[in-house]
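Suppose you are handed a protein chain with no further information: no name, no annotation, nothing but its sequence. What can you learn? This example shows the usual starting point.
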Amino acid sequence: MKRLTRKEEEAMKILWKARKGFIKELIDLHPEPKPPYTTFSSVIRILEEKEYVGHKAYGKNHEYYPLVKKEEYRKIFMKDVVSDYFGSSYKNVVSFFVDEKKLSANDLKKLIEIIEKGKGNG
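A reasonable first move is to predict its three-dimensional structure. Written in structure tokens, the prediction is:
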């Protein structure tokens, strides 16, 4: 599975939320500033080439839908982030969030409980 650019990720987030849609409908869901039709359409076609998106044709109009689930992409994305920025160490990830004051002692206790119970999907 190929990594997505920022614009591709933005388009996928919209498509995951919408579940399906025509280009104009998807652009309507895009936050401001909205991209030009041709730009957004090009991004969707690239996502189709990367096999993240499929479509159903209605004459010349295409209704697009995600082929890759958000959860699947999240796993790949997080694995890459942990590998690229934290030396493949989840301990380093947790340490980073503690240092950045994004995780409290209470949060860490809850994580330990999750680990001890063998739950991974919190």
